[in-house]
Amino acid sequence: xxxxxxxxxxxxxxxxxxxxxQSDAAFYAPGHKRGQGINPKLTALWGKDLFKTDLPELPELxxxxxxxGVIAEAQALAAIAFGASxxxxxxxxxxxxxVAAIMATCQPGDKIILPRNIHQSxxxxxxxxxxxxxxxxxxxxxxxxxxxxxxxxxxxKALQENPSVKAVLVxxxxxxGICCDLEGISQITQQYQIPLLVDEAHGAHL
Length: 206
Hints:
Layout: H1 3-6, H2 11-20, H3 40-46, H4 49-52, H5 70-82, H6 95-105, E1 111-115, H7 120-129, E2 132-136, E3 140-141, E4 146-147, H8 152-161, E5 167-171, H9 182-192, E6 196-199
Parallel strand pairs: 1-2, 1-5, 5-6
Antiparallel strand pairs: 3-4
Helix pairs in contact: 6-7, 8-9
């Protein structure tokens, strides 16, 4: 099977489909019990089959914290699609990913470079990790009257002034859809041999 053909596989969706056809009693959350307790107005709007696949962490659906089944398989497929060495799925949006990335790269007292227009999840990551922020003010576009992104030059200057920095975090794109020179910033962080963390939460719609 080619890589392209392999990417057609959907392990988690397939397993949800299998479990939705089972008729065993659902002694687990959610309380609607595979759609039986859903308001008829909702089932008329969305259909009952949708709720049959609203399932918790059943053994057949793998374990997100230590995947070895369909989640592990799906993550491996995603890594190939993204060109990454490894991919982890997140829940509760990108917030937990931003927090985890900061905590994985910074110990209490470590410095990290960030743009001033970061998401509040990065602030939570700073608090939980005990890292010290080195803020960079993003550029301003007078023609668009918008705050854009930080530049490679600004990152290089901040690193020269703070050579002990442990990581750099950028927002790509910003909430307004503006992208920084990610390749240029990446080249600089590689020179310093420090991780470049990228918050791409707002990029899914691009």
